[in-house]
Amino acid sequence: MANSCIFAKKLYTGREVQTDVYLAFAGKSIKAVGKKAVGEVTGEYAVVTPAFIDPHSHIGLIRAGEPAGEEEANEKMESIVALADPLDSLQMDDPSLRDAVEHGVLYSCILPGSGNIIGGQSAVIRHHAGDSSAALIGRAGVKAAFGYNPMSTTAWKGTRPSTRMGAVALFRRKLAEVADKVTAAKTAKGKKNGLSLEEKLLAEILAGRVALRCHVHKIDDIAAILRLAEEFSLAVCIEHAMDVHRPEIYARLRQRNIPVVFGPVDAFAYKVELKHESWRNIRHLVESGVRFGLMTDHPVVLSRNLLLQTRLLVRAGLDRQRAIEVICRQNAEILGLGGVLGTLEAGRWASFVCFDGDPFDMTAFPVAVYGEGERLYAES
User: Fold this and answer.
1) What are phi and psi of 309, to 5 degrees?
2) 20 to 30 A Cα–Cα from 221, which one of 124, 194, 349, 380?
C-alpha cells in the first residue's frame, strides 16, 4: 500500500512541537514523521495535531434532536447494574457524533450516567463508525458514582440510598458479599464458584484488574472513595472533581498514582455540591502534578468544544503543547490507549486534525480531519 503524506508547518506530536515536517501514513497507521516527504504529498497545513479524545462522555446516549424522555444514560431498575453496557444504547445517527468529528474529536469513552451507585461498563468508541459494533475500540473500567447524584434518585426502582453514607454502605455491602464468595470458592476445591455474571465482573474490580471510574465532585466524597479503595484494594479513576477548591486532595491522589479526568470546565454549577466550582480551581490540578485528562461530559459541554476548554489550562500555567497533550496523549493513556492513539509517531493510528492556523486562535478551525488513515472531513 502506497504512502500518503501531508506537510505541516507546525506539528503537535503529543510530546513536542516540530516545524516544517512531513507526516506519512498508509492504511490506518503512521509510517514516518520527518523532514523528507515519503510518498505523494496530498496537503499542506498550517498546524496539525493528534485527534482529540474525550475520556468521559454520554454522546450517542443523550442524543441531539431527541426529547429528554428518550435519553438512555441511566438505567433506573436498580442502584447497582454493573452489567449495563452503554454500547447497547449507542445510536450512531446522533448528529453530535458528526459534529465532533468536524471539530477533531474522533474518540470518546462513553459511560452510563451517575444516578446509580454502579451504573455499568464503559465503552471507548470511534465517532466515525457505521454502527455501534464497529465503533467499539475497547473498555476502560466500570462507572461508579458518589456524592449527591445517587442519593437524589429515591424515586427510581430498586433499593436506593437517601444519603451519602447509605450509598457507600450499599456499595460496601455488595463488594463484601462478592469478596466472601470469591474466598469461599478458593477454599472449595473442584467446585464451581457460584458467581453470577455481575458478580464475576465485580470480582475483577476487587482483584484490581478492572478500574472504577468514579463520578465525584467534592473533596470529602473523594476522601470516602480513597477509604473504600484502601479497604478493598480497588483501582480507581476520579472523574469530575469540579468542587475541589483546595490542593491537598490532589497531593493524596498523586501519591497513590490515581488519575483525574477533570471537567466539564465550561458548565453551569447547577447544584449545591458545586458551590465551590470555579475555573480558577484548575490551578490546583495543574500545580499538583497529578496525572489528569480533560472531559466534556457531553452534552453538559458539547463534545466539539473539548479543545475550547484547554484555553483555561493555558491560563493556569500550561504551555500550548502541554495543553494539547492533555486532550490527546494524556486522555489516551488514562483510557489505556497510549499504544495506538494520542501521539503522532510511527506505528500509531493515523488520526489527526489539520488547522488553518493556531488552534488557540478563536478564528482558526479544522480544514481537514483524518481518522485511521481515512479523510473524514474536509472544509469545502
Assistant:
1) -65, -25
2) 124
